[in-house]
Amino acid sequence: MQETSADVSSRRTFAIISHPDAGKTTLTEKLLYYGGAIQMAGTVKGRKSKLHATSDWMAMEQERGISVTSSVMQFPYRGCLLNLLDTPGHGDFSEDTYRTLTAVDSALMVIDAAKGVEQRTVQLMDVCRMRSTPITTFINKLDREGRDPVELLDEIESVLKIRCAPVTWPLGMGKSFRGVYHLEHDRVRLFADGEVIEGLDNPRLDQLFPYEVEHWREQIELVREASESFDHQQYLDGELTPVYFGSAINDFGIRELLDDFTDHAPGPLSRDAGRRVAAEESTFSGFVFKIQANMDPQHRDRIAFMRVCSGRFEPGMKLHQVRTGKDVKVPRATTFLASDRSHADTALPGDIIGIHNHGTIIIGDTFTEGEKLHFKGIPDFAPELFRRVVLRDPMRMKALQKGLQQLCEEGATQLFRPLIGSEWIVGAVGALQFDVAAYRLRNEYGVECSFEPVQVFTARWVECDDAKMLERFKSRNESALAYDGTDALAYLAPTRANLDITQERWPDVTFHATRDR
Ligand code: GDP
């Protein structure tokens, strides 16, 4: 059966970005519920705790209440097929979280009304900005006392550098939260019972809220005057975000959000792979943005998560792995319909497939039907945490090196070999990654090691067109320089001040916070 391009454009591949506890899990649950993927709210949380403990590895996840295995949730909604990519956020925050954002076409941002813009959200938005990803904003927990909505929007604009176009507006907050008003539809939905009231001048509002309604009317008039109205193109360009208010746990304000999201969010976008690859092209292409190891301890295999960019994937297909130049037959792949992993029939652009392999696929790999494409923008991100590796048994050095190199290729952790000294430094974005690395080194490579603190604040990949200048830079900063797993030169700044001073002193040297694979 030939798929029409309408099927491709109906895909909405997105992620939720938020700071821990803002309500991402709760919102995910409601979205899956609306998509008919789960029967009852509560299932996503349940999945966190009810992981089958089939291995120590899984036991480790379970102990920590972390789901490393829930990755992609596909569900239908109003004629669209939504692919929600999980962005691990609590202890399991890692580079995967960042890289997942390179595989989506848009994102939903959840902000806690009491807390406003928090640090993790800032970091995730930095990644979204790299590709001008369209952002839809949901301000959550209006059933609690929170901050003034105008102040919240100001904060989003100034801290996250994106203009806000409120689409709904809250009527009251906390104990006096009465509902949301849809600025475009001129319609109120009440929090207490979901009643819909057409028009802000509707006398029904005066009748129900005689002491509050005038204030709302004044406020909304001001909001209309002072704020931007939604502009679809500016949204698609990542310059403006539509903003919705509600309460995820009370399933309030979510349908408005989801309806507009499916209408406005882009389908699979074209991507740069040396040339621009359009989703509508008939030949297959895709790239790997995440590797997950040991999902099945019996087989020690890894799953490579691939975003389909063009064409279609069919089981049994022969794919060309551009990096190695080899053709590999993919007898089966995993798809993620309705949060259940099941065998794929076909996958279209925007969809994610999981390919089993034994370490032959690495992050950033492009697969095609033969064309030498290379999808750009699946970078390594400067780690935020650093530890030095202390090996217990010096005889196991070779095994340690092999293991660390492999983990590095998978993108689980990053490896740095300082120019001076023999000690190796491992970098990660989330603290759990060190535990995972130690666990896997022990189990897969028979190496006992520990990760000890080291005085490194951040890493920057350095580049300089002037070879002589680079040599001078190297000799002056030898003690803070290292080669990463791919022999690229990195500056390991002991403190933020060091980084600032060094950057100032060497204006012709560029310091990159990300590095394209
Ligand atoms: P995550 O860490 O972003 O996934 O956040 P969760 O969805 O786990 O929510 C964090 C906490 O906030 C949980 O205790 C939720 O029950 C609570 N929560 C989520 N949404 C709301 C809401 O709309 N109102 C209130 N009062 N609490 C909420």
TrEMBL record:
Which domain of life does the protein's organism represent?
A: Bacteria
**Gene Ontology terms, MF aspect:** GTP binding; GTPase activity; guanosine tetraphosphate binding; translation release factor activity, codon nonspecific; translation release factor activity, codon specific
Statement: the UniProt record of this protein carries the keyword Phosphoprotein = no
Q: List where in the cell it is found.
A: Cytoplasm
- Name the UniProt key words of this record, in alphabetical order: Cytoplasm, GTP-binding, Nucleotide-binding, Protein biosynthesis
Query: Which parts of the sequence bind GTP?
Result: 18-25, 86-90, 140-143
One Pfam family cited in the UniProt record for this chain: GTP_EFTU
Under InterPro entries, the record lists: EF-G-like_DII, EFG_III/V, G_TR_CS, P-loop_NTPase, PrfC, RF3_C, RF3_dom_3_sf, RF3_GTP-bd
In this chain the Tr-type G domain maps to: 9-269
* One BP annotation, GO: regulation of translational termination
Kindly list the GO CC terms recorded for this protein.
cytosol
Q: Where does the record place a coiled coil? A: none
Which NCBIfam families does this chain map to? prfC (TIGR00503), PRK00741.1 (NF001964), small_GTP (TIGR00231)
Q: Which family does it belong to?
A: Belongs to the TRAFAC class translation factor GTPase superfamily. Classic translation factor GTPase family. PrfC subfamily.
Q: What does this protein do?
A: Increases the formation of ribosomal termination complexes and stimulates activities of RF-1 and RF-2. It binds guanine nucleotides and has strong preference for UGA stop codons. It may interact directly with the ribosome. The stimulation of RF-1 and RF-2 is significantly reduced by GTP and GDP, but not by GMP.
Q: What is this protein called?
A: Peptide chain release factor 3
Organism name: Halorhodospira halochloris
What high-level taxonomic lineage is stated for the organism?
A: Bacteria, Pseudomonadati, Pseudomonadota, Gammaproteobacteria, Chromatiales
User: Quick one: which gene encodes this?
Assistant: prfC
